[in-house]
Design goal:
118 residues; mainly beta; seven-stranded mixed sheet
Length: 118
């Protein structure tokens, strides 16, 4: 059973930064890739960023491109999301997810709250 645990959320003022972490109980780099998603109040969950371990390719939502960076640490089985220049529209619960084969994100974390105040 894959378990993903997010941390690093919190409250920050607009323009500030946070780094989210997602620790897995499996070798994350043996999977196809991992991603970050978010869900704001009253809205559907949306894609934020993904990283594919084999190619190292990263993809970002347009709304975060240039501000957020996804990365991973194989030794710690952890994936990170560095978030800079945060604004109120980034307020949401952030989830990490693992895609084992390239077909779908089969495992999800419990989420971590990020609140950006203006």
């Amino acid at each position: 059973q894959v378990q993903l645990v997010e941390s690093g959320g919190g409250s920050v003022q607009a323009g500030g930064s946070l780094r989210l972490s997602c620790a897995a109980n499996v070798r994350t780099f043996s999977s196809y890739g991992m991603g970050w998603f978010r869900q704001a109040p009253g809205k559907e969950r949306e894609f934020v960023a993904t990283i594919r371990w084999g190619s190292g390719k990263t993809v970002y939502a347009h709304s975060v491109e240039g501000r957020f960076t996804i990365s991973g640490d194989a030794a710690k089985n952890t994936v990170y999301l560095q978030m800079n220049s945060l604004n109120s529209e980034d307020t949401a619960v952030y989830y990490c997810a693992l895609d084992p084969t390239g077909n779908a994100y089969d495992w999800w974390g419990q989420g971590t709250q990020v609140t950006v105040s203006s």
